[in-house]
Amino acid sequence: MEASAVLCVLGVAAILGLYIWRISNWLWFKPKKIEKFLRDQGLKGSSYTFVFGDLKEMVQMRRDAKSKPMNLTHDIAPRVLPFIHKSISTYGKSCFTWMGTKPLVHISEPTMIREILANYYQFQKPRGGNPLTKLLARGLIDAEADQWIKHRKIINPAFHVEKLKHMVPAFYVSCSEMIDKWGKLVTKESSYEVDVWPHLQTFTSDVISRTAFGSSFEEGRKIFEFQREQAELIIKAAQSVYIPGSRFLPTKDNKRMKEIDREVKASIKSIIDKRVVAMKAGETINDDLLGILLDSNYKEIKQQGSSNFGLSIEEVIEECKLFYFAGQETTGNMLVWTMILLGQHTDWQTRAREEVLHVFGDKRPDIDGLSHLKVINMIFNEVLRLYPPAVMLRRLIHEDTKLGKLTLLAGTLIQLNTLFMHHDKDMWGDDANEFKPERFSEGVSKVTKGQATYLPFGGGPRICIGQNFAMLEAKMALAMILQGFSFELSPSYSHAPHTIITLQPQFGAHLTLHKL
């Protein structure tokens, strides 16, 4: 009896000891071993701190940076990513930091960046993080490996240039509504201060509602209002430290997020169901993004002879949610920073307006003319260099991997710091932090010498599928704005770029408008 009790105690002690060892290994011994492994290869970086890594310092530095605006300069990295700026300044452009217990290796070598972006099977997007963000958008942006290939193949037709031509009228109508609102605020004899940021957000959301859902535009607009509220709630949650399981707590915000998710899915499904009925009745439905997506999906299933090769209704719903998120965020950000920079550098605003008036006069911009706007193209490229929508790209290594001269262990996070690459004086010259669109006068490949140093839309096979859509929409909007108004920065403008998913003006974009 006593022997059994002793064995029982020993068994419990052994299990407890094993458990303690595993926890200790996870929280301390394994990170320290990886740290030594990285240092032995010549990488410098911060020392691992128990459990939190660099998270506490990262959060505090970000909070301090956001507490006040900065000087009107384009050297924005110290404010936008203060901890990474400090780390790179201390340890070099290629270094490592800690996301909790996981090492985060910062890669800056262009050849290594190209390899990472090209090998999407080997370097996949990290899972985990705050699962609430998945309520906002999943779809193509979240898919990996074979799933991503399937999604991309089916969605591709929606963004072919020939299809985009048919969406230009929607760009025009939505922009006309915004221009008309501004026209009512300002007369030719006076000027008027406007925070253009919310106006541009409304414009880009209306464009997505029209181009995604066409005749169901009003229903689409309601869906966007839900998505905008969802984004605000998710951003609020994402700004605090995520506690696993907290999304299941019956808080007011959690309940509302789930309600919105149900409403959005039900609304999109209702629109999809109507389109499917129309498609089965032989009606043409491929005149908007949703119609093209459903048509492409149907053809793929029919060609392959199995629904396994197509998207489910749930997956189509997620792609529609992604249309809203990605379409509104990318173009809205590009336009707001363009207006801010042209409000500061009015000489380039004048050059852009002269080009627009030379090509279109006071007539409605069309797709052929938009493709010939060289000065505006240079301006957009420079704006995207200085203020890229996504300031970083992150990947996770799933198995031990050789990258250049480095050997990286499974579980290592890799970060490509787009913002720092775009402002790197070694790559762009001593004027890297200055607004000089002329650097793109001979195109992107000429100035980058073909290297992976300019990534406003990502790169490799996973480059943003909607970049042509975004550029065309932005050109239409800027051309129409320049036809009707001149503008400069208002004295009340506070320069405060910060990231909430994408790079945005924290205190808005206050400009003084003059009607032409």
Automatic annotation (TrEMBL):
Name the positions where heme binds.
C464
An example Gene Ontology molecular-function term = monooxygenase activity
Domain of life, per lineage: Eukaryota
The UniProt record lists the keyword Acyltransferase: no
User: SUPFAM superfamilies under this entry?
Assistant: Cytochrome P450 (SSF48264)
Q: Where in the cell is it found?
A: Membrane
Q: Which Pfam families match?
A: p450
Name the UniProt key words of this record, in alphabetical order.
Answer: Heme, Iron, Membrane, Metal-binding, Monooxygenase, Oxidoreductase, Transmembrane, Transmembrane helix
The yes or no answer to whether the keyword Heme is present is yes
Q: Which cofactor(s) does the record list?
A: heme
> Belongs to which family?
Belongs to the cytochrome P450 family.
Protein name (Swiss-Prot/TrEMBL): Cytochrome P450
